[in-house]
Design brief:
The chain contains 10 helices and 5 strands. It is globular, with a radius of gyration of 17 Å. It is mainly alpha-helical. Helix 2 runs antiparallel to helix 7.
Length: about 220
């Protein structure tokens, strides 16, 4: 049984994006980058490290302290150095292939994933990250199942709401739930995407997580 610390939102989304066997992408690398980039933005916004602004849409450094996680703290430093980043660029800049690999390596150190090398065209090698311990992802999927099978107006904690909105918006849920299950959950998924929060920043983040107006990729 894994005893790792609670996973970050981008780590949870990365688990959803990776295939258990072989460590390839469930819905392609673009979807994974979009989901993880949004997860990093969400994580840092909820921690107060980043602030989302509406007019004009941009991201700035907040008052929250460093997280102690190297990938997240590098993002905080990047935003602090630049002063602000246009919202339309934020998710793409945070969800780079390098950042996804760094997150995967961190999960491998926790024995949740394992790092393997696959030879490409007999010359190049590519790192893959199949599942080593299935329990964290199983718990994650069950948590999402409980959230989306509830009544449309049932209460839901903010972290799970944002997780579900991002995973649904980037099509990652279809890798773990059948079309029939997602069709049945459609009213609940719509309610999660549209729900209001008392905190304006959280409401703004959830709207952006649902609309995906920040993305450059065609998902």
């Amino acid at each position: 049984m894994t005893t790792q610390a609670e996973l970050l939102l981008p780590e949870e989304l990365l688990l959803l994006a990776l295939r258990d066997q072989g460590g390839g992408w469930e819905k392609g690398e673009d979807a994974a980058r979009a989901a993880v980039g949004a997860g990093m933005l969400a994580e840092l916004t909820m921690r107060g490290g980043l602030v989302l602004h509406d007019d004009p849409p941009r991201v700035t450094r907040g008052k929250g302290e460093a997280t102690g996680h190297p990938v997240l703290d590098d993002i905080l430093d990047e935003v602090a150095d630049e002063g602000e980043i246009p919202a339309a660029e934020a998710v793409a800049r945070f969800g780079t292939s390098t950042n996804l690999q760094r997150l995967a390596q961190g999960l491998a150190r926790q024995d949740i994933l394992k790092e393997t090398e696959e030879r490409v065209l007999l010359v190049f090698t590519e790192n893959k990250y199949p599942t080593a311990d299935p329990e964290p992802e199983q718990r994650l999927v069950e948590r999402i199942r409980e959230a989306i099978e509830a009544a449309p107006d049932a209460p839901l904690d903010e972290r799970t709401a944002v997780l579900v909105a991002i995973a649904n918006g980037t099509n990652l849920l279809s890798g773990h739930f059948s079309a029939a299950e997602l069709d049945k959950a459609a009213p609940r998924l719509a309610a999660i995407a549209e729900r209001s929060h008392t905190d304006d920043a959280a409401a703004n983040l959830l709207r952006q997580a649902s609309a995906w107006d920040m993305f450059k990729w065609d998902l």
